[in-house]
Amino acid sequence: MKALNYKKVMCGYLLFAGHLLLAVASVLLCVFFFFLASEKEYARIEEKTEVCEQIYREQNHIVDGFDELFSLYRSFDLVEGVNPDFLMRSLVARKLEVASMVGRIPQEEVEIPMHLLNRMEDLLRVRDSISSMQKTEQTVKDDLIRCCGESRSITRKMRVGKLLYSK
């Protein structure tokens, strides 16, 4: 025996099954697109991370370059008998290497190293002036010592020769 509203019940079941299938399909579609978006987001994150790691490595190389620059600069004062011209050329060469490393990184990532490089120009000019003044001072000192020695030897010769002149 069939119920009197069999058609309506079957239509209700079919309508419910259709809506359930539609709901399940939409949920599966949403999950699929969520995972697809997640994979793309992970790929973007990995790409950005790689770029950031590269910039970080470059910044570490720049810091090492500055360490070498400042250790070379300190050797002006710490090492006796250092050749200032050779040391200055080494400093300038190393500074140019650091400047080329700084040039490879985006400008907003290297504001402090750029400022240091710009200030180092002034520092190197001052150091160059100090070196040239030290050379001039050493030359004048050597000339003074030589003149004093010659003056003593001439004074001795004049006394030995029994010629006495007033000083």
Q: How are the SSEs placed, and which strands pair?
A:
Blueprint: H1 6-78, H2 84-103, H3 111-160
Helix pairs in contact: 1-2, 2-3
The oligomeric status of these chains comes to single chain
Biggest sheet record: none
| Uncertain segments | none
pLDDT averaged over residues? 84
Strand content: under 5%
Tell me roughly what share of residues is in helical segments.
over 70%
Q: In one word, what is the shape?
A: rod-shaped
Along the chain, the helix and strand elements come as HHH
Report the strand count.
0
By DSSP (H or I, 4+ residues per run), the number of helices equals: 3
Whole-angstrom Rg: 42 Å
For the record, give the distance between the C-alpha atoms at the N and C termini, rounded to a whole number.
153 Å
| SS class | mainly alpha
Describe what you observe in this structure.
This protein has 167 residues and is mainly α. It is built from 3 helices and no strands. It has helices at residues 6-78, 84-103, 111-160. The longest helix has 73 residues, at 6-78. The termini are far apart.
